[in-house]
Design a protein that fits this description.
The chain is an alpha/beta fold. Helices cover 51% and strands 13% of the residues. It is built from eight helices and seven strands. Strands 3-2-1-4-5-6-7 form a seven-stranded parallel sheet, sandwiched between helices. Helix 5 links the parallel strand 5 and strand 6. Helix 1 packs across helix 6, helix 3 packs parallel to helix 4 and helix 7 packs across helix 8. The longest helix is centred in the middle third of the chain and has 27 residues. It is globular. The termini are far apart. The model has no long low-confidence stretch (mean pLDDT 93).
């Protein structure tokens, strides 16, 4: 990806790592559009970064994606970078009665929605200079989380489709990138007593990987996850999930207090 001069759409860009990426893209001289479900959240983001463009759209719904496509076509015809960042995370026991609805919703939001959006925006994206598709997954693609198995499954599936998409679109010179974050200090990890990377540091590393031409940008502790998944998968799975279970119990105790 070029360092500057891009027109970039970031889904789920109103908070967290999405907003941090929007900030660094803006600072490097790019035009940035963020979308999200809530107008108030987008307004807050725009107050922090006045050069941001915002679109209220829920990409998990067909109607929301159509709204986004119309707005992007009418107002941002030079868009050449799509960052599929929007996602839903939850901790849900596999045997919980609500697990299946949770699984279905996360598959729709984390897997189906980004791929559907790519199809919606492809006709314009492929006509512009240096077209790039960025899918944000998670370190759980290497070692899945038992307590967040629906999230792990949806993001692992997104990784698989991203790899297939990269192979398919290479003939059209469309770059397809996967960004694999570690645990970042955002609302998603609020209350967890673990080492968290700042969203600003994450965004800087993601940006560096994009401009350096990396197709798979593995950041922070996700690198260790990849190594363990190859060298000691059983140990890595047991260690991470035992630690997560302990963290969850501690958080539950803190809530009771």
């Amino acid at each position: 990806m070029k360092r500057n001069g891009n027109t970039i759409l970031i889904t789920g860009g109103g908070t967290g790592i999405g907003l941090a990426m929007a900030d660094i893209f803006l600072n490097k001289g790019n035009e940035v559009i963020i979308c999200g479900r809530t107008k108030a959240t987008l307004n807050n983001a725009q107050e922090k970064f006045p050069l941001l463009h915002t679109i209220v759209a829920d990409v998990s719904s067909k109607e929301g994606r159509q709204v986004l496509r119309t707005e992007m076509t009418n107002h941002f015809p030079k868009r050449n970078v799509l960052v599929n960042n929007a996602g839903i995370y939850s901790i849900t026991d596999i045997m919980d009665p609500n697990y299946i609805p949770t699984l279905e919703f996360q598959l729709m939001t984390n897997l189906v929605a980004p791929m559907a959006l790519i199809q919606e925006l492809m006709p314009v994206l492929e006509k512009n200079v240096d077209p790039t598709i960025v899918n944000v997954t998670t370190g759980y693609v290497f070692i899945p989380s038992a307590q967040s198995s629906a999230y792990s499954a949806s993001k692992t599936a997104l990784r698989a489709i991203t790899q297939g998409l990269r192979f398919t679109l290479q003939k059209k010179s469309i770059r397809v990138v996967e960004i694999i974050p570690p645990a970042v200090d955002t609302q998603m990890n609020k209350g967890k007593k673990i080492s968290l990377m700042t969203s600003e540091r994450f965004a800087q590393k993601a940006f560096n990987g994009l401009v350096n031409g990396q197709d798979e940008i593995i950041i922070g502790m996700s690198k260790l996850g990849k190594l363990l998944s190859r060298m000691a998968p059983k140990f890595g799975f047991k260690k991470m999930n035992t630690d997560e279970e302990k963290q969850r119990l501690e958080m539950d105790l803190d809530t009771i207090k």
